[in-house]
Design brief:
Elements (H helix, E strand, L loop, with lengths): L2 H13 L8 E7 L13 E9 L5 E2 L4 H9 L5 E7 L2 H11 L2 H17 L4 E5 L20 H22 L5 E7 L2 H7 L2 H7 L2 E5 L32 H10 L7 E6 L1 E7 L10 E8 H9 L3 E5 L4 E6 L2 E4 L3 H13 L4 E5 L17 H10 L35 H4 L15 H23 L1
Helix pairs in contact: 1-13, 4-5, 5-7, 10-11
Bound molecules: 2-acetamido-2-deoxy-beta-D-glucopyranose (4 copies).
One 2-acetamido-2-deoxy-beta-D-glucopyranose binds next to helix 11.
Protein name: GH18 domain-containing protein
Organism: Adineta steineri
Pfam family, one: Glyco_hydro_18
């Protein structure tokens, strides 16, 4: 290999530590249901949730399925332990980060726990979620101080690098689950700092709607609703991803959250429309949604938001099926993201008997669409995503009997055809600087 090429590769490796690699399929597992040993298409498993004790050490409660799973797992499959998840844990995390000595004790305890139980890394998930575990309180505790959070991230990074150097073991991985809402991203995270210390960031691109809202809306829309205004414009996956990339974060550092559950709302007035007054009735797992399809719910695909809803009487469920998931996976590829986080994989149809779509239809779909794909290092110049992809007969499209103005549903073909070039500018500039640097290097070598 030519020397300049080597130098160029080294330079490239500094610019794009994550691109050029395998597309990650990260599967979140909630611990109380046990891990299904056949989740073989996941590249990473995240086991939930470890706790921060009152003495600021990390502890976890895990059951035999995890041991069994690890004993039988593919050696390439990496297993993470997630900490956080619920309001109580987030309150504890705030306390832990409030003092240097608390934080240092925590950091060291993570290495011990991860190594003792043979985990490959940790995921800091201080995002309240309504999907896993007991329902959240209406006003969940959030990370109070974003600077402290960055310090924790840097301390963990240093600890794991030091430990790997000292012991000769593979370095422990560190990921962070961040909000998918622009306002929260601005106020609660130093994204540039977190992108430096974490191996990647899982974006919680779901739970956009829930019990905090008093209206019926889709909780994981890919695109904004036609005519959405103000903050509502930001409550979707595309807005979150575009916003994060616009801050200069390398897209390959981001993983798109793919929920395996829908959120059900009960309408509380005579208005039967999205945006109408409603109360949240909780989450519905994917496996149950397949049965709902079979028992007379009406499915409507929202052309603006690029996701389906189901309607029956005064109830409406915003959810994802294989059609919208396919659009989201393709979106992740188009945006050069590093992978997908399936949240949680417990709700996939592990035995293939509930949905008649084979075993693990969701994980398999991600695998199928990304099997020969490596995360691209090239700037975004490809044509926009073709959103007119015909659904593969996976579910029927039924015209709703709802009082929804037609334009609301079957609006214009929004969003995915917009050019993305503008948001990529800062990254292109960085890349140009490196290319100039490479040319200078080559020139120097010619001189020598
Ligand atoms: C893995 O994904 C492939 C491709 O989609 C699929 O054919 C296979 O059944 C999946 N395997 C498991 C164990 O889910
Ligand atoms: C993907 O790779 C496999 C094995 O390398 C190959 O057999 C298959 O044809 C490839 N599929 C596509 C769609 O390129
Ligand atoms: C988009 O996909 C559809 C369905 O696969 C196809 O009929 C159509 O020609 C495609 N459009 C473009 C512009 O590629
Ligand atoms: C899809 O539906 C059409 C019409 O209903 C049918 O002719 C075709 O065989 C179906 N394709 C698959 C793959 O099921």
């Amino acid at each position: 290999m030519n020397l300049e090429l080597i130098i160029f590769s080294i330079l490239l490796s500094f610019i794009n530590a994550d691109c050029g690699g395998e597309f990650k399929i990260v599967c979140y597992f909630s611990s109380w249901t046990g891990i299904h040993p056949e989740a073989k298409n996941c590249t990473h498993i995240v086991y939930t949730f470890a706790r921060i004790e009152d003495d600021n050490t990390l502890t976890g409660v895990w059951n035999n399925p995890l041991k069994e799973f690890k004993a039988n797992k593919d050696p390439d499959l990496k297993v993470f332990l997630a900490v956080g998840g619920q309001d109580y844990a987030i309150r504890r995390a705030n306390e832990m980060m409030s003092k240097d000595e608390f934080r240092q004790k925590f950091v060291i305890s993570t290495t011990k726990l991860l190594r003792t139980h043979e985990f490959d890394g940790i995921d800091l998930n201080f995002e309240p979620s309504e999907a896993l575990g007991p329902p959240s309180t209406p006003n969940p505790q959030l990370i109070e101080d974003k600077k402290r959070f960055s310090v924790l991230c840097k301390d963990l990074q240093e600890e794991y690098a030091e430990e790997a150097g000292r012991t000769g073991r593979t370095r422990l991985l560190l990921t962070i689950t961040i909000s998918g809402i622009k306002k929260q991203l601005e106020s609660r995270f130093e994204l540039d700092e977190l992108a430096k210390c974490a191996d990647w960031l899982n974006v919680q691109t779901y739970d956009y709607r829930g019990s905090r809202d008093k209206i019926a809306e889709h909780h994981s829309a890919l695109m904004p609703a036609a005519g959405a205004t103000d903050d509502d414009k930001d409550l979707n996956q595309d807005s979150a991803i575009k916003y994060i990339i616009s801050t200069g974060i390398e897209p390959s550092k981001l993983l798109l959250g793919l929920p395996t559950f829908g959120k059900k709302f009960r309408l509380t007035s005579d208005l039967h429309d999205l945006g109408s007054p409603a109360t949240s009735v909780g989450s519905v797992p994917y496996t149950e949604l397949c049965r709902n399809t079979m028992s007379g719910w009406q499915r409507v695909f929202l052309d603006d938001r690029k996701v389906p809803i189901m309607i029956k009487g005064d109830e409406v469920i915003g959810y994802d099926d294989l059609q919208s998931m396919e659009l989201k996976i393709n979106y992740a590829k188009e945006q050069r993201l590093g992978g997908i986080v399936i949240y949680p994989v417990n709700y996939d149809d592990s035995a293939g008997q509930l949905c008649n779509q084979g075993k693990f239809p969701i994980v398999s779909l991600v695998k199928e669409l990304t099997s020969n794909y490596t995360v691209s290092c090239l700037p975004l110049t490809t044509p926009p995503l073709n959103t007119t992809t015909a659904p593969k007969n996976r579910t029927k499209n039924i015209t709703p009997k709802w009082k929804i103005p037609r334009t609301e549903y079957l609006g214009t073909n929004l969003g995915l055809n917009r050019p993305h070039r503008r948001v990529y500018n800062s990254v292109s500039v960085v890349r140009s600087i490196y290319i100039i640097q490479y040319l200078l290097f080559s020139f120097l070598f010619l001189l020598v």
